[in-house]
Amino acid sequence: MKNKTKIIATIGPKVANELALKKLFAAGMNIARLNGSHNNLDWHAKVIKLIKKTLPDCPILLDIPGKKIRTTKLLIDKKFKKNDTLILTTLNGFNGEQKISITSRDLHLYLSKGDIVFADDGTLKFKVLRINKKDIYLKAFSSGVLKSSKGINVPHVRFKGKLVTSRDISMINFAIKNKVDFIGISFVESAKHINDIKKLIKNNIPQIVAKIENQIGLDNLEEITDSADAIMIDRGDLSTETNIQTLAVNQKKIIKKAIEFSKPVIVATEMLDNMISKPYPTKAEVLDISNSVLDGASATMLSGETAVGDYPIEAIKVMSEISEVTVSDKYE
């Protein structure tokens, strides 16, 4: 095959078995990804072991949460209507019935009345009504559902604290112990951020995939690209942390910089989102994958499409076929 663009597939409970892994690999998966924001470390350890046993030649990428804020495990999906009030809290132990606990212990310190808060890759939008101790009262701009482990974004708010958190250190040690090939570092801010993690790893493996997800990452793109082993364009957080209208321009800018430094670059988020529930892509998704390949992406990534979707094998096949056709002599 002429196609040299790799395919990264996120492994979730639906495909964390020997038969499904073999089918994903046969369909075109080149790298198996695990999202450290979901499930627990025992689950990830078992799945890493399973992947190594089933697909010994398939590299493993473990994404670690970093500073990314998420909702915790909820007992119920929180449904709401336009103008409803939701309560996020930085206290532990609230399961969505009255309040929704989040992974940050200090977000309430950085927010003020009128601030805009996004959730679930920017698909949900809220305005801060008030802050009461550790509770954040939000007004919904539209109807929706807020589920477990969904990302929370507050654009242009800078959080203080260490670049590498205690949770990061725990996850990095886990990655080293379980001998994964790559770790994805969320919200990378600088070369120092990467170098601090290199000091923890001490060896060349696992290699560091720096995720560009906010404005400071874009501002320091050159030094980050120079220091990292690879770059990931996380378009969900990047679009909400910056401006969705500039997403395509920023993607092209990041790919160009990665090529300039001869570093692999991964394009991620909603590449085949339609195939989470349907057996075919939209025309826009076909164009998205094709343009990413033509721009020089080293890999394209599937997240929910393979982790929780109804058509994981088909999604891999579609992505592989689009990539192959895009670089075919027939269409040059």
Descriptive account of the structure:
The protein has 332 residues and is an alpha/beta fold. The chain has eleven helices and 17 strands. It has helices at 18-27, 41-54, 166-177, 191-201, 215-219, 221-227, 235-241, 247-260, 283-295, 304-307, 312-326; strands at 6-10, 31-35, 60-64, 69-70, 78-80, 85-89, 100-101, 116-119, 124-132, 135-140, 144-146, 151-153, 182-185, 207-212, 230-234, 265-268, 299-302.
Tags for this entry?
7-stranded mixed beta sheet; 8-stranded parallel barrel; 332 residues; 23% strand; 11 helices; alpha/beta
Helices and strands in order, then pairings?
Layout: E1 6-10, H1 18-27, E2 31-35, H2 41-54, E3 60-64, E4 69-70, E5 78-80, E6 85-89, E7 100-101, E8 116-119, E9 124-132, E10 135-140, E11 144-146, E12 151-153, H3 166-177, E13 182-185, H4 191-201, E14 207-212, H5 215-219, H6 221-227, E15 230-234, H7 235-241, H8 247-260, E16 265-268, H9 283-295, E17 299-302, H10 304-307, H11 312-326
Parallel strand pairs: 1-2, 1-17, 2-3, 3-13, 6-7, 13-14, 14-15, 15-16, 16-17
Antiparallel strand pairs: 4-12, 5-11, 6-10, 8-9, 8-12, 9-10
Helix pairs in contact: 1-11, 9-11
